[in-house]
């Protein structure tokens, strides 16, 4: 197992924490000089905030650890391709490298729908590595949404009273 896969496994562990809370299982970690300095997982439902994405939470924590908004010399590992908001936060925090597992065909801004992370017009661009443990990351999401749909089907229809 290479270094990217080892760190992605740690991001998957974060995603499982989200899943335990009933959150969409997305996890992220930030690595600086081969050391994990920040972790995050989805907390949108738990905290009822649009900003509760794994990447944003990890970025906030990393900024505190480094005591700077500039996260140069770091790598962000995330189980799902960043959305536009998270891609913006990545660019703004100057993270030079992003590694993600599963593609997001509905909101991905690391190459699927758009590639904000490498947009030439921005003053900062990232190196992007895709598909690291992609199958495992995708399976987490597929299983989560399948279980959610089954749960919704089993709920009694309250409109029939």
From TrEMBL:
Keywords: Hydrolase, Metal-binding, tRNA processing, Zinc. InterPro entries: APOBEC/CMP_deaminase_Zn-bd (IPR016192), CMP_dCMP_dom (IPR002125), Cytidine_deaminase-like (IPR016193), MafB19-deam (IPR058535), tRNA_aden_deaminase (IPR028883). The active site is at residue 55. Binds 1 zinc ion per subunit. It comes from the Bacteria. Its EC number is 3.5.4.33. It is an enzyme of class 3 (hydrolase). It catalyses: adenosine(34) in tRNA + H2O + H(+) = inosine(34) in tRNA + NH4(+). Its cofactor is Zn(2+). GO terms for molecular function: tRNA-specific adenosine-34 deaminase activity; zinc ion binding. CDD domains: nucleoside_deaminase. Residues 2-112 form the CMP/dCMP-type deaminase domain. The keyword Hydrolase applies. Zn(2+) binds at residues 53, 83, 86. Pfam families: MafB19-deam. GO terms for biological process: tRNA wobble adenosine to inosine editing. The keyword Transferase does not apply. Homodimer. Belongs to the cytidine and deoxycytidylate deaminase family. ADAT2 subfamily. This is tRNA-specific adenosine deaminase. It comes from Gottfriedia solisilvae.
């Amino acid at each position: 197992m290479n270094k990217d896969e080892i760190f992605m496994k740690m991001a998957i562990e974060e995603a499982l924490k989200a899943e335990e809370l009933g959150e969409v299982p997305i996890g992220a970690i930030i690595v600086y000089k081969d050391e994990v300095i920040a972790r995050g997982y989805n907390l949108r439902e738990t905290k009822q905030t649009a900003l509760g994405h794994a990447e944003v939470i990890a970025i906030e924590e990393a900024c505190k650890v480094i005591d700077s908004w500039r996260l140069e010399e770091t790598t962000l590992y995330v189980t799902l391709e960043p959305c536009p908001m998270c891609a913006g936060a990545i660019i703004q925090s100057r993270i030079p490298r992003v590694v993600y597992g599963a593609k997001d065909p509905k909101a991905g801004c690391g190459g699927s729908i758009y590639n904000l992370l490498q947009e030439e017009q921005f003053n900062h661009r990232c190196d992007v590595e895709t598909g690291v443990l992609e199958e495992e990351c995708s399976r987490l999401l597929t299983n989560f949404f399948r279980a959610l749909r089954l749960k919704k089907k089993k709920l009694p229809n309250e409109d029939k009273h």
